[in-house]
Amino acid sequence: MTRILVWGAGLGAQALYKALGVNAQCVTAYVDADPDKWGADWLGRKVIAPADAPGQAHDFLVIACQAVAQVREEAVRLGLPLDRIVPFLEDPAACLERLGFDVCLYSEHMELCGDRVKATPITHPIGTKMIQDVAPLVPVREQQALVRRLLDAYLRARAETANIPPLYRAGENWGMLLADTARALESLDPAAAVGPVTETLNNFCRHDASLYIMGGRQEFKRFCKARSLPWLAHNFQVWQYSLDPAPDLREAGLPPIGNPYGVLVDGALINWNSFPNHFRAANCLRLLADVPRPVVAEIGGGFGGFAYFLQRMGRPVAYVNFDLPENLIISSYYLNMAYPDKRILLFEDPDLALTPALFEDYDILLMPNFMVPRLANMSVDLFINTISFSEMELAQVEEYLAQIGRTCRRYLYHENLAHIPPSYKGYPARVFPAVPNFRELSVSVSRWMGLDAYAVNHTYLEHLLVRQGLAL
Ligand SMILES: C[S@@+](CC[C@H](N)C(=O)[O-])C[C@H]1O[C@@H](n2cnc3c(N)ncnc32)[C@H](O)[C@@H]1O
């Protein structure tokens, strides 16, 4: 068995421990310069002083802290062989390969044998980063009829914006973010627009049309350059712990729509949206387990990731997305491509009443945000809003929450900011107005790396509210 000595008994060592999975048993000790840690137990092993490192049998020294050059120098000065020193954080995959281990995600199957737990490790091989182009499900030239319909719905929604109450116009943050998209769409000659819009939608994951809902061009570049994906092992584990039974990893895979990129794990394409969106969908349906065909409505559905998983879970469900028109066209494309056989309603008529009878007729309804007041009283089982209310004007949040109080008969689940970064105009969830007729059931810090308590300025809270009087 390869013996590994680890330099650093902090967060880097924790990340290494997770990446090693079942091979973590190969670690013999942790070395740390902090005398307060010497002699303590850390991840099941002793922390030792640097001076004791040469006496500790090992095949490799893995540096699991940031100060790589400094530690390497000190280790060599202590007599450790340079060619056996491997840094971890700058390229975890290369480190694991150097140690002779597969690059994997790990999960466990656990069962009770008498009063003991038997844990069987399961490995999920991590393949290459998928950054080459992904061919669409349907050839681009065959998508044009759909894109024509999406553009018509968009243009109808935009034409309505002159008549809608100011509360339903994009607020300051999103008004600025979407100005370029709106300008680009409106500068196109409607007769000739289908071609370029089809091209954009086919590539939206890597295009600025998806800025702030998927990440756009810069995010794609960052992903291409990144040598480590710290969120991957962490969020996979969180996802496994959050759902019972723990799902098969392939369930979180992304479809080949919009030229997605990510990493191939067990053959499934995974990006940072995969686990959160899959979890949210499974969790909402878990709350609605005894509702035969629930109506789930979302405000600000982004590119459609939550809805994609909601519809994939095999339960009959009516889903309604209310979003700003520039982003709605993207989720409309995504869901139409993913579910060509589902009954999907695009925006046509601003006077349409969104009633239970209509929800019987459609599986997916894609509506501009100003259609929320058209919802019938008590017609929705669950509302969801993620990473979105905090970015709106407070008066808009108040309006949406009042509408939810009027229209929702069971749950409101939302994830919004715990605090506001300096120089950002937005609102933490704690200052949102009360939702009429609802009470808070639970609130906790986001489970996902990047949104959690360690995410500087981007900590989110997961809120679950329930309609007063609902029998639980
Ligand atoms: C950061 S994205 C989050 C998208 C998605 N919910 C997610 O978690 O990935 C914010 C979403 O809120 C939407 N949004 C912003 N202002 C809005 C408004 N006034 N009404 C409805 N949706 C709005 C945006 O268009 C976008 O889809």
What does this structure look like?
The protein is an alpha/beta fold and 472 residues long. It has two domains: 98 residues, 3-Layer(aba) Sandwich (Rossmann fold); 246 residues, Vaccinia Virus protein VP39 (Rossmann fold). 32% of the residues lie in helices and 22% in strands. It contains 13 helices and 18 strands. The chain has an eight-stranded mixed β-sheet with strand order 13-14-12-11-15-16-18-17, sandwiched between helices. Helix 4 packs antiparallel against helix 11. It is elongated and about 80 Å long. The structure holds S-adenosylmethionine. S-adenosylmethionine (SAM) binds next to strand 12.
Keywords summarizing the entry:
472 residues; alpha/beta; Rossmann fold; six-stranded mixed β-sheet; binds S-adenosylmethionine
Q: What's the layout of helices and strands?
A:
Elements: E1 4-7, H1 11-20, E2 27-31, E3 41-42, E4 45-48, E5 60-63, H2 68-77, E6 85-87, H3 92-99, E7 104-113, E8 116-130, H4 144-160, H5 172-187, H6 194-202, H7 216-225, H8 230-242, E9 262-265, E10 268-270, H9 274-287, E11 295-299, H10 305-312, E12 318-323, H11 325-338, E13 344-346, H12 356-361, E14 364-368, E15 380-386, H13 394-407, E16 408-417, E17 438-445, E18 460-467
Helix pairs in contact: 4-6, 4-11, 9-10
Bound molecules: S-adenosylmethionine.
